[in-house]
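Q: Please design a sequence for this.
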């Protein structure tokens, strides 16, 4: 043993010593709980692929948020499932739509809760894409349709504005259109909502981990003539890290107050690289597929759900995330605070 004095183990001997030198903490304040809201009253539809997750009507959503608040959750992010869908996603900026109604109800009945809203078109378009579709000019005839980036921007701005008017604390565009942070920032500022921050889904990767979410939000791209079968034309390639840094730099320059990486665990290297280069708060979205895998393995008795959940969330924080969006939020908060879930 050449360096007997070098013995990091010494500081692991007792829990008190371990706590003394612990580098990363996990607290309920770090967690954001995604919730799905749909029209109706007393609706509580379980999402099959996500045990413990429900599609909720506004009244049930308020009750769910109150239970979460009692367990220690201090932030939620809302996804809407509208009554009707159409080609341009008109429901997205309906001020009487489910999301603005849910925001108003939460701000009134759970006043301590930070209410974020997801801003995107895919829940509201009948084709399920994150923007309006058009015939492409590049590539000649016979191409499949593409999302019209620039025509989508004003629609996203209208949606963000509808959420801000309802009282949203943070708006979170997830569409991955270029220029949307600037478009939303300008629209908010012009209407007097200069104090509403933007959490941009800056590095959102096109991958397979969103499957269960699309059941929950009913937002999977629909099959049809010319309709792109996936979102690879606007979401990021899982192979790319440098491009993620470029996306973050652009969003920060456009006025993003916080940036997000989505999914979380397979992309922790991206979180770390962003942490090392940027000073804005970073969010990581522990997505539905990641949640479903933990739930399924736990159901089979193959892992200890509680320990794997806390370790996963802690490690996302260690990689550099300030906040973690997770379906485990209420359960994790309850464990961390010792309160009932
Ligand atoms: Zn979308």
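A: Design:
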């Amino acid at each position: 043993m050449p360096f007997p004095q070098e013995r990091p183990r010494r500081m692991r001997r007792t829990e008190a010593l371990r706590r003394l030198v612990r580098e990363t903490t996990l607290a309920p304040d770090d967690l954001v709980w995604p919730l799905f809201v749909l029209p109706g009253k007393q609706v509580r539809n379980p999402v099959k692929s996500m045990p413990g997750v429900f599609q909720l009507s506004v009244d049930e959503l308020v009750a769910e948020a109150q239970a979460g608040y009692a367990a220690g959750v201090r932030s939620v992010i809302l996804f809407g499932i509208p009554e009707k869908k159409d080609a341009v996603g008109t429901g997205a900026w309906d001020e009487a739509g489910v999301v603005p109604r849910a925001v108003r109800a939460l701000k009134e009945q759970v006043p301590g809760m930070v209410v974020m809203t997801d801003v995107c078109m895919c829940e509201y378009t009948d084709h399920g894409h994150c923007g309006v579709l058009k015939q492409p000019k590049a590539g000649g005839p016979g191409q499949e349709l593409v999302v019209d980036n620039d025509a989508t921007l004003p629609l996203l701005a209208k949606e963000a504005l509808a959420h801000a008017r309802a009282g949203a604390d943070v708006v979170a565009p997830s569409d991955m259109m270029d220029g949307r942070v600037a478009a939303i920032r300008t629209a908010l500022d012009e209407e007097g909502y200069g104090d509403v921050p933007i959490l941009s889904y800056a590095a959102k990767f096109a991958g397979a981990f969103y499957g269960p979410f699309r059941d929950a939000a009913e937002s999977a791209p629909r099959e049809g003539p010319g309709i792109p079968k996936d979102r690879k034309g606007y979401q990021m390639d899982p192979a790319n890290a440098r491009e993620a840094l470029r996306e973050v730099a652009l969003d920060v320059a456009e006025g993003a107050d916080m940036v997000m990486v989505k999914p979380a665990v397979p992309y922790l290297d991206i979180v770390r690289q962003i942490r090392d280069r940027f000073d804005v708060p970073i969010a990581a979205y522990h997505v539905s597929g990641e949640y479903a895998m933990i739930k399924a393995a736990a159901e089979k008795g193959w892992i200890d759900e509680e320990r794997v959940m806390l370790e996963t969330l802690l490690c996302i924080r260690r990689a550099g995330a300030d906040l973690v969006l997770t379906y485990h939020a209420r359960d994790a908060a309850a464990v961390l605070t010792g309160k009932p879930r």
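Q: Thanks. Anything notable?
A: The CA atoms of residues 16 and 247 lie 42 Å apart. The radius of gyration is 21 Å.
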